[in-house]
Amino acid sequence: MRVRNKPWADDLIAENPEAIVLDAAAHRGHWQDRFKQQQPLQVEIGTGKGQFLIGMAKAHPEINFVGIELQKSVLAAALKTSLPEALDNLQWVLADGDGVETFFEPGEVDQLYLNFSDPWPKTRHEKRRLTYKTFLASYQAVLRDNGKIQFKTDNRHLFEYSLMSMTAFGLQLTEVSLDLHADIAASDGKLENIETEYEQKFSAKGQPIYRLVVEMPDKAK
C-alpha cells in the first residue's frame, strides 16, 4: 500500500527526540532509560498510526510501551497524535521489525503485539509473514521466559497459518478467539481489547476479528 508523504514528518520527528528513536540498536539493553520509571516492557511491531498503542499506554500507566514502524509518514502521524497525551510510558521507533533481536537484549521484552500484519497470501512470500518461524525465533530471543505474543487479524488464512506456525514452534496457546468482538460481548467486560484503526474498519463491515495469545516456554525447562 502506497503511503502518502507528509512534508511535516521530518521536522516533527527532529523536534521530539525524547519521544522517538531513530537508532533502535543503540538502546539495546537500556530501553528503561527512555522512560520515566522502570516497568514491564511491551512492544508492538507494525504500529501503524498508533491508535492501539496510545490506547494501551493510557489504559496501563504501569507498563512501558514501544511501537515499531517502518513507514516514516505513518509513524509521524502516530507521534503527532500521541504528543498531546504526554504519555511518559510510550516510545516510538522508526525501524523495520525484521531484526527485532538486534533492538532488545534477551529477556528484555515482556510481551509483543502483532496487529493486522500484512498477510502475504502467496506461498512464495511465506517467509515474509510475521508469524513465520524465523520471526518467531527472533521474538523468542527477546522475550522473557513465559513472555507472551498477542496476534490479531481479520484474515482467516493468516490466522490459521499463524495458529499452526506458532504451535509447531512450541508456543503455548492461552487464548484462541474466532470472533473477538462476540467473545468480548459475552465476557461481561473480562476480556480487554484496545482496537486498532484497521480493526474498527473491518469490524464495521461485519468481518470477524481473530485473536491468538501465545506464551513462550520457560527456556530452562
Structure description:
The protein is built from seven helices and eight strands, in the order αββαβαββαβαβααβ. It is of the alpha/beta class. The chain has a single domain, classed as Rossmann fold, CATH 3.40.50. It has an eight-stranded mixed sheet, sandwiched between helices. Strand 2 (41-45), helix 2 and strand 3 (64-69) form a beta-alpha-beta unit. The model has no long low-confidence stretch (mean pLDDT 94).
Radius of gyration: 17 Å
Total domains:
1
Helix-strand topology string: HEEHEHEEHEHEHHE
Task: List how many beta strands DSSP finds.
Answer: 8
Question: What is the CATH architecture descriptor?
Answer: 3-Layer(aba) Sandwich
Shape: globular
Write out the CATH superfamily name.
Vaccinia Virus protein VP39
- Strand portion: 15-25%
Structural class: alpha/beta
Mean pLDDT: 94
Widest sheet: strand ordering: 1-4-3-2-5-6-8-7
Uncertain regions spanning at least 5 consecutive residues: none
DSSP summary: helix tally:
7
Mind describing the biggest β-sheet?
8 strands, mixed
N-end to C-end Cα span: 43 Å
Helicity level: 25-40%
CATH class: Alpha Beta
CATH topology: Rossmann fold
* Oligomer category: single chain
Region (Interaction with RNA): 124-129
GO molecular function: tRNA (guanine(46)-N7)-methyltransferase activity
Protein name: tRNA (guanine-N(7)-)-methyltransferase
Function: Catalyzes the formation of N(7)-methylguanine at position 46 (m7G46) in tRNA.
